[in-house]
Amino acid sequence: MADVQQGYRAPQVCNVVGITYRQLDYWARTDLLKPSLQSASGSGSQRLYSFGDIVQLRVIKRLLDAGMSLKKIRQAMELLRDQLQSERPLEEVTLLSDGSTIYAAHSADEVVDVFRRGQGVFGIAVGPVQQELEGDIHRLFPDHPEAAEPVPATREA
């Protein structure tokens, strides 16, 4: 029996996240973030991204905007993937950086410890990014029924 999930095509993802198709394609080809619902399988095929994929892409974009290198962003994405595998809610993760390392904090105590080191840090709470993204999707696609509704994707159960 197939499990039906909702997916978003690359042009929709680029529009919502604020990146170019070229960036999205490069990130998928270099394993920074592959679409979890459907990968491209040749000419004419389309990638399908889940909502969780889009949240991670928005976090990648924010890290780039904050001046982090792609190498360090790859490390941060590994932390997020570990978070998903440990079955802890993704929105509870806050990413922190001292300019040379990116940390994942799961509680206020961890954040306090980082600040006590006296280094300048920034944080991206993934939960608010997810909530903001939900609003952006509804706002960007209000008049286009096909674009507003995610594309169904099937997965083998």
Model description:
The protein is of the alpha+beta class. It has a single domain (2-86, 128-156), classed as Multidrug-efflux Transporter Regulator, Chain: A, Domain 2. It has seven helices and six strands, in the order βααβααββαβααβ. It has helices at 10-17, 21-29, 51-65, 70-85, 108-116, 126-140, 145-148; strands spanning 2-9, 48-49, 94-97, 102-105, 122-125, 151-156. The chain has a three-stranded antiparallel beta sheet with strand order 2-1-6. A three-stranded antiparallel beta sheet has the order 4-3-5, with helices on both faces. A hairpin with a 4-residue loop joins strand 3 and strand 4 (102-105). Helix 3 runs antiparallel to helix 4 and helix 3 packs across helix 6. The longest helix is centred in the middle third of the chain and has 16 residues, at 70-85. It is globular and about 40 Å long. 23% of the residues are buried. Mean pLDDT is 76; it is low at 112-119.
Unreliable stretches covering 5 or more consecutive residues: 112-119
What is the molecular shape?
globular
Q: Given the helix and strand composition, which structural class is it? A: alpha+beta
Instruction: Report the radius of gyration as a whole number of Å.
Output: 17 Å
Can you tell me the CATH architecture? Orthogonal Bundle
Primary descriptors:
157 residues, alpha+beta, Multidrug-efflux Transporter Regulator, Chain: A, Domain 2, 3-stranded antiparallel beta sheet, 6 strands, globular
Write a short abstract of this structure.
This protein has 157 residues and is of the alpha+beta class.
